[in-house]
Amino acid sequence: MIVVGISGASGPILGIRLIEELLNLKERVYAILSGSARSIITHELGYPMDKASSFTDLIKTRTLAKNSSLLSVVDDTNFFSPPASGSSRFEAVVVMPCSMKTLSSVANGYADSLITRACDVALKEKRRLLLVPRETPLNLIHIENMKKAAIAGADIVPPVLGFYTHPKTIDDMINFTVGKVLNLLGKHHSLFQSWEEMSHNFIGE
Ligand SMILES: Cc1cc2nc3c(=O)[nH]c(=O)nc-3n(C[C@H](O)[C@H](O)[C@H](O)COP(=O)(O)O)c2cc1C
Q1: How many A from CA of 69 to the centre of ligand 1?
Q2: Which fold has domain 2-199?
Q3: CB 155: neighbour CB atoms within 10 A?
Q4: What does the pLDDT average to over 14-36?
């Protein structure tokens, strides 16, 4: 069981693609969207997010996702839901993308939303917490907050481009970051070739 938070940074498609890949792997997923994330999905993907079931509908209508029955979408204010408690046996929390505001809340233990509460729970229960911060350039407050969260146990996984896989499309670039997150979660994927697979062209006898 993996909790995926989508906060209000540019790039909610990153979290959506992660959810799709986890569902394809038959993982149980709890998705939590902040209010800003819902507006940004409408803005960046052109998808209306005006009723509670919209996010599930979005996942169902995209052809990339199977097993949508394994997805639960939980309201960001619902502290009675499983991600709010350490007694729920979720394996990891991934916030993708992670806004600077959500990063700040996590770094400072300010758990006033379900996303930030789930992050707080992951840290206190020594479970995996992956933050995918999306902002550029970074100010010192952002950098200090990343350092604080990393010292507390979070993995900081910025969606930074890699060119060694020879990306051709925006999807290739998205898959690169999604694949990096899946690698850290120990989940199999074929979103991009590993260096091990690529490099046998360069090895001699
Ligand atoms: C179109 C749009 C794009 C945004 N992109 C970012 C971003 O990339 N990074 C960021 O930290 N904030 C971004 N913001 C601002 C956040 O949405 C805002 O700080 C909000 O309070 C974050 O709340 P949340 O973390 O609870 O979702 C963006 C806002 C809008 C409307």
Answers
A1: 29
A2: Rossmann fold (3.40.50)
A3: 16
A4: 96
